[in-house]
Design a protein that fits this description.
The chain is α+β, with helices and mostly antiparallel strands. The chain has 2 helices and 10 strands, in the order E-E-E-E-E-E-H-E-E-E-E-H. The protein folds into 2 domains: 40 residues, no CATH class; 120 residues, Alpha-Beta Complex (Nucleoside Triphosphate Pyrophosphohydrolase). The protein is elongated. It binds zinc ion. The site of zinc ion has 8 residues, from loops.
Length: 177
């Protein structure tokens, strides 16, 4: 099943239909007076390469069935004043750390989840306190960090390369199912 595939109009509850809107076929409301179109735009997500006391902190999500450690990520909230504010909030919520800076690394597409990921390097201070979303963290010296060749892994790779490291690629694990 495709991500974000709505079946019913969120405005008037009629079943959505496929409608050719010129550039692309979209799922849309059959009632032209309603006019709802499900544009299926990518969802913005923020991600952090967290640096704490000279090490990178990679985190394991509580829902993952395999021991895979990745970047801190989260969705923007309507109350966030910027992507930088959003990732600083996520680092505080998930790790209990205070961001000292938010340095933009780049944006990366995650087509499978229909997301656009904005990645930041976040030097942070404080004492680690994990939220219940995370089951574990590892601390990795930047020179030893490996990357996975997709989405947030590419952000980690790009940051490591800019620091002068030669990161090795690792396999992407199957996280669910
Ligand atoms: Zn409708």
């Amino acid at each position: 099943m495709k991500a974000n595939l709505y079946r019913f109009c969120p405005q008037c509850s009629q079943p959505l239909v496929e409608r050719d809107l010129g550039e692309q076929v979209r799922r849309a409301c059959p009632d032209h007076a309603c006019g709802y179109v499900h544009w299926n735009n990518p969802t913005p997500v923020v991600a952090a390469v967290v640096e704490h006391e000279g090490h990178l902190i990679l985190a394991r999500n509580s829902l993952w069935k395999v021991p895979f450690y990745a970047l801190i990520t989260g969705f923007l909230e309507a109350s966030d004043t910027s992507p930088e504010a959003a990732i600083a909030r996520e680092v505080e919520e998930e790790l209990g750390l205070q961001a000292q800076a938010t340095n933009f690394i780049g944006h990366y597409s995650f087509a499978r989840q229909n997301q656009i990921i904005m990645a930041f390097h976040v030097p942070a201070c404080g004492t680690v306190s994990l939220s219940e979303e995370l089951s574990d963290i590892i601390r990795v010296p930047p020179a030893d960090a490996k990357y996975w060749p997709a989405a947030t892994g590419l952000a980690l790779r790009d940051w490591l390369l800019r620091q002068g490291h030669q990161p090795e690629e690792m396999a992407i694990p199957k996280l669910q199912g």
